[in-house]
Specification:
The chain has 194 residues and is α/β, with parallel strands linked by helices. The protein folds into two domains: 49 residues, Orthogonal Bundle (Helicase, Ruva Protein, domain 3), CATH 1.10.8.420; 93 residues, 3-Layer(aba) Sandwich (Dna Topoisomerase Vi A Subunit, Chain: A, domain 2), CATH 3.40.1360. It contains eight helices and six strands; from the N terminus they run αααββαβαβαβαβα. The chain has a four-stranded parallel β-sheet. A two-stranded antiparallel sheet has the order 1-2. Keywords: DNA damage, DNA recombination, DNA repair, Metal-binding, Zinc, Zinc-finger. This is Recombination protein RecR.
Length: 194
């Protein structure tokens, strides 16, 4: 359909979001068109504050509204246990369990030679700087992908003589079937058996 340029620009802006195709972007644009001015201003304010009001925690790299994120600022967290994740959204997933009371370290990606992402482009050096004699454990919670595994192995080599290193267990999900499970997942399930 032939929309006015500014409406088309809005549709194209929404299409830059992951998983948003042309039809969904068009629905979003029409939805915004129907908003009252107050709702639209609230949305625009939130978008503007995203760039000026959200920063990275100077300690762990998590999203924060100040120098420290709420987790690093919490005096009740166990600072001797560090869970290493790829991105801040991984922290949200782990926190939803309400079982882990340690702190985190965000790598901001994974090593990927094909894309030219090397270890020095990740938040690894600051992790090494955080490790001291009081650090009891570093939990490597990278995704079970080739890049996640490569990154975890790299960090494990750097830390192997300095601190206890553990990995998240991988295996067959509840409700899964053995005959549908790929061989790598099945291997991980056997290796991590109790």
């Amino acid at each position: 359909m032939n929309y006015p340029k500014k409406f088309n620009d809005l549709i194209q802006a929404f299409q830059k979001l992951p998983g948003v195709g042309a039809k969904t972007a068009e629905r979003y644009a029409y939805t915004m068109l129907d908003w009252d001015p107050e709702t639209l201003n609230d949305f625009l304010d939130a978008m503007n504050h995203m760039k000026t009001g959200i920063q990275r925690c100077k300690i762990c790299g998590n999203l924060s509204s100040g120098e420290k994120c709420s987790i690093c600022a919490d005096p009740d967290r166990n600072r001797n246990m560090i869970c290493v994740v790829e991105s801040p959204k991984d922290i949200a997933a782990i926190e939803s369990m309400q079982e882990y009371n340690g702190v985190y370290h965000v790598l901001n990606g994974t090593i990927n030679m094909k894309k030219g992402i090397l270890p020095d482009q990740l938040n690894i050096q600051s992790l090494l700087d955080r490790i001291n004699e009081e650090t009891q454990e570093v939990i490597l919670a990278t995704d079970p992908t080739m890049d996640g595994e490569t990154t975890a192995l790299y960090i494990e080599k750097l830390l192997k003589d300095k601190v206890k290193i553990t990995r998240l267990a991988y295996g067959i999900p509840i409700g899964g079937h053995l005959d549908y499970t790929d061989s790598l997942t099945l291997l991980r399930a056997f290796q991590g058996r109790k």
